[in-house]
Amino acid sequence: MEASGELGIEKLTVITWGLRKELELEGRRIRILPVEEWV
Prior knowledge:
Layout: H1 2-38
Protein backbone atom coordinates (compact mmCIF):
# COMPACT_ATOMS: atom_id res chain seq x y z
CA MET A 1 0.00 0.00 0.00
CA GLU A 2 2.77 2.46 0.98
CA ALA A 3 4.77 1.80 -2.19
CA SER A 4 1.78 2.40 -4.49
CA GLY A 5 0.94 5.58 -2.55
CA GLU A 6 4.50 6.86 -3.04
CA LEU A 7 4.33 6.03 -6.75
CA GLY A 8 1.06 7.97 -7.02
CA ILE A 9 2.67 11.01 -5.42
CA GLU A 10 5.71 10.72 -7.72
CA LYS A 11 3.41 10.51 -10.78
CA LEU A 12 1.46 13.59 -9.64
CA THR A 13 4.71 15.50 -9.08
CA VAL A 14 5.97 14.59 -12.56
CA ILE A 15 2.62 15.53 -14.15
CA THR A 16 2.41 18.89 -12.35
CA TRP A 17 6.08 19.61 -13.16
CA GLY A 18 5.42 18.76 -16.83
CA LEU A 19 2.35 21.01 -16.93
CA ARG A 20 4.32 23.83 -15.31
CA LYS A 21 7.09 23.48 -17.91
CA GLU A 22 4.51 23.49 -20.74
CA LEU A 23 2.89 26.64 -19.33
CA GLU A 24 6.32 28.29 -19.06
CA LEU A 25 7.09 27.44 -22.70
CA GLU A 26 3.66 28.67 -23.83
CA GLY A 27 4.14 31.87 -21.81
CA ARG A 28 7.51 32.50 -23.47
CA ARG A 29 6.06 31.81 -26.91
CA ILE A 30 3.18 34.23 -26.27
CA ARG A 31 5.62 36.88 -25.01
CA ILE A 32 8.21 36.34 -27.78
CA LEU A 33 5.80 36.21 -30.77
CA PRO A 34 4.45 39.79 -30.43
CA VAL A 35 8.03 41.09 -30.07
CA GLU A 36 9.08 39.31 -33.29
CA GLU A 37 6.02 40.72 -35.09
CA TRP A 38 6.87 44.29 -34.03
CA VAL A 39 10.56 43.89 -35.00
